[in-house]
Amino acid sequence: MSPTLLFCAVFCCVTGVLVSYAQECGRPTVVENRIVGGVDAIDGAWPWQVDIQTVTAGHICGGSIISESWVLSAAHCFPNPSDVSSYIIYAGRYQLNGFNPHQSTHRVSRVVIPSGYSEPHNGKDLALVQLSTPVTWSDYIRPVCLPASGTLFPSGTQCYVTGWGNIRDDVPLQGVGTLQEVQVPIISQSSCQEMYQTNPTEQVDILYDMICAGFQKGGKDSCQGDSGGPLVCPMINGSWVQAGVVSFGLGCAHTNRPGVYARVTSFSSFISNTVPGIRLYGRANQNWCGSAAMLISCLSSLLILLQR
């Protein structure tokens, strides 16, 4: 093999592995020890979180970065998905009203929502938002992992929801508006349905494409302004996978009214068919071991070439 071809092979091999590692999903570089009832997050702890604003209204929703050019959010955040001219998305943001040295600003080129969506209580409350300019990966801007359709989030699984929404009913986040986080357990569909049937005047059907998280007694929950944001759960390998998208509730953190989220696994095909090259957790190895294996395989191939 000529020196030029050898250099090209080594360069392509190593850079390919580094690119794969740089885009590794669900792995914040800022690690914590560890909304209503929430606490301030650490800057960079949830690097996929985005702030969705409009020119006229300011902050309206949250969302999560799933690739360089796509964000996952809720359909009800985009009442007219064909008109995206007023939307601004901030990646790497930590404070709504403070200094954000790590953020980048992006306009929206397209919003795709599932066919048949009407309003959150009827399901299909999910949106795929294409950015006009791609994000640049950093310690503060990274993608979350998305689950394949067969991924399970059993009842009792301890997950986190994050956002800049109200801290109580009709009480907005105060001060500089630091990103909030709260830990909530997954609630089974049957238990959630029972809770939402306790008041005959406010009954809600928990559909197949919904997942619930929170407490029967209330106290901790997502709230207005958190819509579209991620409900993420830790996997056994340490990666964070998004189980839900903040959709709706009846009030915030009320008894027998846990948060209801769009169940991401119900939209695996929709996401795969819309976002080019997206990899779903469970279908592709996205951890460092996979990148290391790729590197070993690549170097082995190079040694064989050198022996020829």
What features would you describe in this structure?
With 308 residues, the protein is α+β, with helices and mostly antiparallel strands. The chain starts with a helix and ends with a helix. The chain has four helices and 15 strands. Residues 1-22 and 284-308 have low confidence and may be disordered. The chain has a six-stranded antiparallel beta barrel.
Task: Give the topology.
Blueprint: H1 3-22, E1 39-40, E2 49-54, E3 58-67, E4 70-73, E5 87-91, E6 104-112, E7 127-131, E8 146-147, E9 158-163, E10 180-187, H2 189-195, E11 210-213, E12 230-234, E13 240-248, E14 259-263, H3 268-274, E15 280-281, H4 288-307
Parallel strand pairs: 8-15
Antiparallel strand pairs: 1-10, 2-3, 2-5, 3-4, 4-7, 5-6, 6-7, 9-10, 9-12, 10-11, 11-14, 12-13, 13-14
Q: Which terms would index this structure?
A:
single chain; 308 residues; alpha+beta; 4 helices; disordered N terminus; disordered C terminus
Euclidean distance between termini CA atoms: 8 Å
Unreliable spans are: 1-22, 284-308
Q: Strand portion, in percent?
A: 25-35%
> Helical stretch count?
4
Mean pLDDT: 84
Shape: globular
Give me the strand/helix succession. Answer: HEEEEEEEEEEHEEEEHEH
What structural class results from the helix and strand content? Answer: alpha+beta
Tell me the strand order in the biggest sheet: 9-10-11-14-13-12
The major β-sheet equals: 6 strands, antiparallel, barrel
* Rg result: 21 Å
Portion of residues within helices: 10-25%
Number of strands: 15
Question: Outline of this structure?
Answer:
Residues 1-22 and 284-308 have low confidence and may be disordered.
